[in-house]
Amino acid sequence: MTAHALTSSAAGPEAPDAVALFETHRKALIRQKMWTNLLFLGLFLAMLAWSIDVSRFFPERLAQGVPRIFEYFGTVLPSLEWDKLFLPRGEDGRAVPGSLTFWYSDFAKYVRLIFETILMAMTATILGAAAAFALCFAAARNLAPKGWVGVLCRRTLEVCRGVPEILYALVLVFAVGIGPLAGVIAIAIHTAGALGKLFAEVAENASMRPVDGIRSVGGSWFEEVRYGIVPQVLPNFASYTLLRFEINVRASSIVGFVGAGGIGAELNHTISFYSDDRVMAVLILVVLTVTCIDLISERVRHAFIGRENLK
Q1: How far apart are CA 192 and CA 221, in angstroms?
Q2: pTM of this prediction?
Q3: I need a labelling partner for 116 at 20 to 30 A (CA). Which of 110, 185, 205, 277 fits?
Q4: Angle at the Cα of 122 (from 245 to 229), degrees rounded to 5?
Q5: What's the rounded Cα separation, in Å, for the pair 157 and 275?
């Protein structure tokens, strides 16, 4: 005799079939889940259609706009002549029009400003990472010493990363004047908010067994974090900080548009004076710089993470 038959005979002929009840309940749950998924799918499609309409993201507009991009790049290309391409400066110290020397006549100035941009990004990353490190453990839900302390730290980090760097830079240029200081502080504030969130999430995913061991022998909150969490999360913290440094190099170029120093200020100057060929010269140097930094920091990050974890 099967279990189904035993269950039915033990409960009597009038009792409901347990297997039938289970199947009915399972089908009801499947129907409920299906309707819920359909509801969310409908909402998603409605929001997608709304966003397409608001942004005017239509194929015909894209088809009309793409050729203009190439037209713009055609206007900013330099007027280089092959027979004059590598000619040096003349005896009077002037570069020959059509040569690379003429196109990059301000090369030393660009390099100095790019170096200043890298230093801005490095300083801002160090300051922001230090602030994020100080707040992330208290912001982590599994490590916050008090509930209100965790909420306060999380809201502080949200405010820091919720405002774009360029808006911070606008306010700080007004407060401390034009120059790299405003850019460094603006990027550092945003970095603290962005890295603080990432650091807190890493800390929340760390194993709590070392913390429980330290707590069981009377360790303080600081000792729990120092000896139980930090050794686990430090490689990921270093990896995220290097990634943020790459982002900050690009951000340093943007905040320069509002007078916060770096190569962005020169880029804004060339655009304002319609020096189109100089715009292309600066952009090429910025792209090359960011690419080199990406490649170097990628190797360093892999060294922190360990290549065996990437396989």
Answers
A1: 22
A2: 0.76
A3: 277
A4: 60
A5: 40
